[in-house]
Specification:
4 helices
């Protein structure tokens, strides 16, 4: 498995295709992903690949000194093989390089595998947003990870 950072709009096609095939992923249009790539060091999109096959992707943005993890998506057929952990590691490395003080995220309350992944990485639950997600309606668990002591 190889983790690649998307640095041009041409490289986001696998991300868009994988998002379309993943109902739980944010269903952004192409312009959203293009905008993130154009932000340069204020955003990062990583793709996990084996050969030409995309296994998953992760997107994060930086606001001052807070890294907001927008999403991690792994294709269903590649889950539970370390892809999500590898993508999370790439995001955390990028956030540290950007001197982020903290990483924050929201995760569906019912997404137990994702919550377990984040907790293994040291994230703690910071709160809950009632009715945050739609289709299906579900609460969001807020989680955070300080990057500096």
């Amino acid at each position: 498995m190889e983790i690649l950072r998307c640095t041009s709009v041409e490289e986001i096609d696998p991300v868009i295709e994988l998002a379309r095939r993943s109902p739980g992923a944010p269903q952004w249009d192409r312009s959203n992903y293009e905008y993130l790539v154009q932000l340069g060091e204020s955003a990062a999109t990583f793709v996990a690949q084996e050969g030409d096959a995309p296994l998953g992707f992760a997107v994060a943005t930086l606001a001052v000194d807070i890294c907001e993890m927008e999403s991690i998506v792994v294709a269903p057929e590649f889950r539970r093989r370390g892809t999500g952990a590898a993508l999370l590691k790439a995001i955390l490395g990028w956030a540290r390089k950007q001197r982020a003080q903290r990483v924050e995220l929201e995760v569906r309350a019912g997404n137990r595998p994702a919550i377990a992944l984040y907790e293994r990485a040291g994230f703690v639950r910071d709160g809950r947003r009632r009715g945050y997600y739609r289709n299906p309606d579900e609460d969001a668990i807020l989680m955070g990870l300080p990057l500096v002591s």
